[in-house]
Write a sequence for this structure.
């Protein structure tokens, strides 16, 4: 795909160098050429060409360019599009068709974005490698024997391999940021409550957020800006006014205060990854930011906290898949209880079963206080620690993932090894703060993302710091070998 | 933490899963390791009494509005009579 950014596309459209139909055709051709090998998409949308024709008509008639006109968009298959199949990469939703489009996606479409297809994910967004999909494996275009990350692996690969210009995914414990880190992209998780979750197939209701994948911070900002804001259909979406991010993108970071929290470094974090983050800190110093060490004492307890709260919420959310209301139903004349049990056993994969059982365990009588309520108290403590740190600094700089992309199959035998991939990303979900991964460099031949975090509601600080880094470096311009 | 086979089977019942013997064997092996990992959290002293979270919900006015697309929903019923979704007897 010859256009790398939204502004490239808009310039070309304005100069009549290309039509929207041609842009979509190029995207579909890239999918046909690359995706048989990479497996990013579960399905494409043939109707997208008609939608492109309609946009070209508008533009020819003199309509001004909307923020996302000409933008090809890949959407994680846990986000609903009205009347279309949606699977959450699970067999239990076979044949289910969404009854309404997710608000966040509808907003993107209303500003011109054209959905070319639905992308692969770990089943019900449970995973860090996209290997838990019930349908297919997705490969990393940087090296096809390593994982793309997860759970939004398909969305990341769609953008990284030039199949779509941008993508959206969901992030509950790192599922946007970690695949972005593994594929050399920008991946952004807004503050909980910034983007409506209406029409997102729920994993953990106090943790899930929708966010963009793009090659540049600027493009991620454009997508986020359109999606963000109060939605009546999501009572947890905030009334708070959304900052104009475009203004933040050009602000210098001179005198911005950056913190390196010591608990995000050290044991368990690869030296190659640490080196990239240390070099990034130097870049910020050269740009005039002050960089200091800070501490979030319970950051290392965040993973255990997360793997109590998330499975608990997931077990509750997945109780609705009962063979009655959604998709697949195993009806053998075995009675109601039989329908529940057999549908769920046939429809859910191994990781899903594990998590809902863990979730039920930590909520059960005799254990609920020591596990679930206790984890929520730790979560409150962690949030206070982040609040205090943001009195000292404006932005935190950490690695996104303890490692670079690991080989396919390397972590599928022992579930705990996969959970450890989330070590550095879960704190932001628990603390309800915005976080972004941006290309920071390489370790060996594989990309390393650096993670920026800011206080609750301060997306602007992250975009400011991220854009400044991309003006001073060119990691984000690297593409995988074809 | 020891999670017995009986406990595992009881959990499977609670989450409405018809597990095979192999699946139960695997879970009997895997669940205790995961629970042991998250159980480490118990050594953390929490000084806060209040649990998270200040997630304030902003409610809309209690006015009647059209609901979701009934036809689209009914079209997906595996078994239906008129505008009723058929299921097995709850009480039998």
């Amino acid at each position: 795909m010859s256009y790398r950014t939204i502004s490239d596309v808009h310039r070309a459209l304005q100069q009549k160098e290309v039509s929207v139909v041609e842009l979509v055709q190029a995207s579909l051709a890239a999918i046909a050429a690359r995706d048989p090998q990479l497996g990013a998409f579960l399905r494409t949308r043939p109707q997208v060409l008609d939608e492109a024709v309609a946009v070209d008509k508008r533009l020819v008639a003199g309509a001004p360019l909307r923020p996302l006109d000409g933008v090809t968009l890949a959407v994680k298959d846990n986000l609903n599009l009205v009347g279309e199949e949606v699977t959450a990469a699970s067999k239990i939703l076979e044949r289910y068709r969404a009854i309404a489009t997710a608000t966040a996606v509808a907003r993107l479409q209303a500003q011109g974005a054209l959905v070319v297809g639905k992308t692969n994910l770990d089943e019900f967004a449970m995973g860090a490698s996209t290997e838990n999909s019930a349908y297919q494996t997705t490969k990393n275009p940087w090296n096809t024997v390593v994982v793309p990350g997860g759970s939004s692996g398909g969305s990341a690969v769609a953008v990284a391999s030039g199949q779509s210009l941008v993508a959206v995914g969901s992030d509950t414990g790192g599922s946007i940021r970690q695949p972005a880190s593994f594929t050399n992209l920008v991946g952004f998780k807004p503050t909980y409550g910034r983007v409506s979750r209406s029409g997102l197939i729920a994993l953990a209701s106090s943790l899930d957020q929708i966010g963009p994948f793009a090659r540049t911070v600027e493009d991620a900002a454009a997508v986020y800006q359109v999606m963000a804001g109060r939605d009546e259909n999501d009572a947890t979406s905030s009334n708070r006014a959304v900052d104009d991010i475009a203004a933040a993108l050009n602000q210098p970071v001179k005198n911005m205060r950056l913190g390196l929290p010591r608990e995000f470094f050290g044991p368990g974090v690869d030296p190659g990854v640490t080196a990239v983050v240390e070099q990034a800190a130097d870049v910020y110093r050269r740009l005039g930011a002050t960089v200091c060490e800070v501490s979030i004492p319970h950051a290392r307890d965040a993973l255990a906290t997360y793997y109590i709260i998330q499975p608990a919420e997931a077990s509750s959310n997945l109780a609705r898949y009962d063979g009655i209301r959604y998709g697949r139903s195993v009806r053998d004349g075995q009675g109601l209880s039989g329908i529940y049990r057999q549908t769920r056993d046939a429809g859910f994969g191994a990781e899903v079963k594990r998590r809902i059982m863990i979730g039920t365990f930590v909520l059960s009588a005799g254990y609920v206080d020591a596990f679930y309520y206790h984890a929520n108290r730790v979560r409150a403590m962690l949030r206070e620690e982040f609040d205090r740190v943001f009195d000292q600094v404006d932005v935190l700089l950490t690695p996104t993932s303890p490692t670079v992309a690991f080989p396919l199959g390397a972590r599928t035998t022992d579930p705990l090894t996969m959970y450890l991939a989330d070590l550095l990303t879960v704190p932001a979900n628990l603390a309800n703060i915005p976080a972004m991964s941006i290309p920071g460099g390489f370790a060996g031949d594989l990309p390393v993302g650096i993670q920026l975090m800011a206080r609750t509601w301060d997306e602007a600080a992250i975009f400011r710091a991220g854009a400044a880094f991309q003006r001073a470096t060119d990691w984000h311009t690297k593409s995988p070998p074809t | 933490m020891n999670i017995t086979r009986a406990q595992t089977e009881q959990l499977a019942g609670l989450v409405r899963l018809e597990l095979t013997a192999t699946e139960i064997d695997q879970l009997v092996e895997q669940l205790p390791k995961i629970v042991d990992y998250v159980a480490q959290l118990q050594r953390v002293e929490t000084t806060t009494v209040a649990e998270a979270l200040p997630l304030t919900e902003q409610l809309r006015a209690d006015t009647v509005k059209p609901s979701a697309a009934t036809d689209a929903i009914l079209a997906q019923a595996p078994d239906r009579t008129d505008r009723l979704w058929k299921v097995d007897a709850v009480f039998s």
Notes: Chain A has one domain: 6-296+384-477. The longest strand of chain A covers residues 435-443. The mean pLDDT of chain A is 96.
